[in-house]
Amino acid sequence: MAAKKPENLSFEEALDELSQIVVQMEQGELSLEQSLKQFERGISLANASSGKLQQAEQKVAILMGNDSQAPLSNFDSNLD
């Protein structure tokens, strides 16, 4: 099965795959060619993830009314 294009992956999927690439490369069992291919894939995943993160930051800024003085608060996932 062919790997999905990085821009078609969710942020979480891209991070998971990037993490797997790091583990593979740290093990040192890949050939030079495989390492370069994985490195290239990792760069693509990192760039796509960065773009998605910037989009999310822009959406947050819009939702906050672009008020740079708006106070930020910690996220509490335990709200009932």
From TrEMBL:
Catalysed reaction, written as an equation: Exonucleolytic cleavage in either 5'- to 3'- or 3'- to 5'-direction to yield nucleoside 5'-phosphates
Listed SUPFAM superfamilies: XseB-like
Keyword field: Cytoplasm, Exonuclease, Hydrolase, Nuclease
Key word Cytoplasm present: yes
Signal sequence extent: none
Similarity field: Belongs to the XseB family.
Quaternary structure (record): Heterooligomer composed of large and small subunits.
Function: Bidirectionally degrades single-stranded DNA into large acid-insoluble oligonucleotides, which are then degraded further into small acid-soluble oligonucleotides.
The protein's name in its UniProt record: Exodeoxyribonuclease 7 small subunit
Organism the protein comes from: Pseudoalteromonas lipolytica
